[in-house]
Write a structure and sequence with these properties.
Layout (H helix, E strand, L loop, with lengths): L22 E2 L12 E4 L4 E5 L4 E3 L6 E6 L2 E2 L7 E9 L6 E5 L5 E3 L2 E6 L2 E7 L10 E6 L5 E10 L4 E2 L4 E6 L7 E8 L8 E4 L9 E5 L4 E6 L8 E10 L5 E10 L3 E5 L3 E4 L6 E7 L15 E8 L5 E5 L7 E3 L7 E3 L5 E3 L3 E3 L13 H4 L18 E3 L14 E2 L6 E3 L34 E3 L8 E3 L45 E6 L1
Parallel strand pairs: 1-2, 6-13, 15-21
Antiparallel strand pairs: 2-3, 3-4, 5-7, 7-11, 8-9, 8-12, 10-11, 12-13, 14-16, 16-19, 17-20, 18-19, 20-21, 22-36, 23-26, 24-25, 24-36, 25-32, 26-29, 27-28, 29-30, 31-33, 34-35
Length: about 525
């Protein structure tokens, strides 16, 4: 029963007097009449009834009963751990701190009150240094009270990368061989060396492989496969210690494709910034055909021609060779002639191939093959025996770049057979001699093979044409067949192949990394 305290009973005459209040545990029943006051022996707090339940009076001291997790990996890039703190008396605005064994403090980047008995504190892993373990956990309330639980969190330091994330390098096409990249990590707590591997599902650029070393490093090495376009490969590397703690870091490697520019007509080569040398092929026009095969064009090639970064280079490309040398009456015959040269940087000149010698009915001088980059084949005549010399090669080194050309083969005449012309010379070999007795025409001289266009496919350039009706190296045909074009690799830049046929156009190809 509620008893009123009378006014004459409120006079306490001694400083050590006190009012004795009802008391009991949280589980024990008590009147919840609004305004009722009691002491809760379970919580150690005064409580006042609000009509439906008792609530604490004044400030409640917080308590911490547990923390989870109690082990944090400190070296995961950018990682944050949510630490759950369980206890009592937590209020809005609470702050969680982590106290190192040296007394230093790390404040949680954020603290969320889930309830009066649970807080969630976010902490950046890297801020918890393993040398300061174990960490105490402290809760501070805005009311000015706090609670702390000691020796709760240990830092299990996984390997820490010492090689920065991001690109491990960009490699040009001529740098693909012998690539070697070292990636390292440290682990102050590990009982053994750090082990490395490429993360599951990721790959390195083709041709490269990762090897884990015994000194807390790994090596990415090998001969990278060529690419058709600039290619960046992204992958993760995992570093693990003896306790199987794993740290992951992201990297890239870029393989650049070779750059190539082909000129089929006059133009200007703009040297890219940073490029100081290029691979260069310069080919003139093929010689025009006669009774002898037209000579292949002169050819210049080098793997390294010096250029000025950011500069420009003039390029002149020889067109199709329609030139002929016509003889006056009474025969009105003609023989092949030289065409145009191709020029790079005004210093490197590839000379046109020599024209083939004339047909029967000409005087001896008119039957000779013309000189040129590679010489034209000698002509042939009926009713006149003997051999008629092919033209001489005039292509040599030009502008410091090696040049290639060969002499044309001799034509042959006997009886009424005037079709045994000699083969035109090619950049790779001399033209073949004709043999009228055996009714054999001279074969065209071989051209030269280069992979400059795509880095792998051999293409023949500047092959000579054979005598009329004779197949030649790189597919040149006899008779009045037209020469092939650059886009047809087996017929590229050969000489004219018979009476009246033309010599193929020149080409300039520049390749760089």
């Amino acid at each position: 029963m509620v008893q009123k305290i009378r006014s004459n009973q409120t006079d306490f005459t001694s400083d050590d007097d006190a009012i004795l209040l009802p008391k009991g545990t949280s589980a024990q029943g008590a009147t919840v009449t609004a305004g009722a006051l009691r002491y809760n022996t379970t919580t150690g707090r005064l409580e006042v009834a609000d009509g439906s339940a008792y609530v604490g009076v004044g400030i409640e001291l917080p308590t911490i009963t547990s923390v989870s997790p109690t082990n944090i990996n400190a070296n995961i890039d950018g990682a944050t751990t949510n630490v759950v703190v369980t206890g009592t008396g937590f209020t809005t605005g609470a702050i969680v701190k982590f106290i190192g064994n040296d007394g230093s403090s790390v404040t949680a980047s954020s603290t969320t009150k889930n309830s009066s008995t649970q807080l969630t504190a976010a902490v950046t892993n890297a801020n918890l240094v393993s040398s300061k373990e174990p960490f105490d956990v402290k809760v501070e309330l805005v009311e000015g009270v706090q609670a702390q639980i000691d020796n709760q969190i240990n830092i299990n330091a996984a390997p820490a990368f010492i090689t920065n994330a991001g690109t491990l390098g960009t490699f040009e096409d001529d740098e693909r061989s012998g690539i070697s990249i070292v990636v390292g990590a440290t682990d102050e707590e590990s009982a053994g060396p750090v082990l490395f591997r490429v993360a599951t599902g990721d790959t390195l650029p083709p041709g490269l492989a990762l090897t884990s070393n015994d000194n807390d490093t790994c090596t990415i090495a090998g001969d990278a496969t060529a690419v058709d376009s600039d290619t960046t490969t992204s992958f993760d590397i995992e570093a693990s210690d003896a306790a199987s703690n794993v740290t992951t870091r992201s990297y890239t490697i870029t393989m650049n494709a070779p750059k190539v520019e082909q000129f089929n007509a006059n133009g200007t080569f703009a040297v890219p910034t940073g490029v100081t040398a290029v691979q260069l092929l310069v080919v003139g026009s093929g010689g025009n055909g006669g009774a002898g095969g037209g000579g292949g064009a002169g050819l210049c090639f080098t793997n390294s021609f010096s250029v000025s970064p950011g500069g420009t280079v003039a390029v002149s490309v020889a067109g199709v060779n329609n030139n002929r040398q016509t003889f006056p009456s009474p025969n009105n015959q003609s023989r092949g002639a030289q065409g145009q040269s191709s020029v790079f940087n005004s210093t490197v000149t590839a000379v046109s191939g020599g024209g083939g010698g004339g047909p029967g009915g000409q005087n001896d001088a008119q039957l000779l093959g013309k000189n040129g980059g590679s010489g034209g084949g000698g002509g042939a005549t009926g009713g006149k025996g003997g051999f008629f010399a092919g033209g001489q090669a005039t292509q040599g080194a030009s502008g410091g770049v090696p040049g290639f050309g060969n002499d044309g083969g001799a034509g042959s005449g006997t009886g009424n057979n005037g079709t045994n012309g000699g083969g035109g010379g090619g950049a790779g070999a001399a033209g073949g001699n004709a043999n009228a007795v055996q009714n054999a025409k001279g074969t065209g001289g071989a051209g030269k093979l280069f992979t400059i266009l795509d880095g792998s496919t051999n293409v023949g350039y500047a092959g000579g044409a054979g005598g009329p009706g004779t197949a030649t190296t790189f597919g040149a045909t006899g008779g009045s067949g037209q020469p092939g074009t650059f886009t047809d690799p087996e017929h590229a830049n050969r000489g004219g192949a018979g009476q009246g046929s033309v010599g193929a156009a020149g080409v300039v190809i520049v390749r760089w990394s």
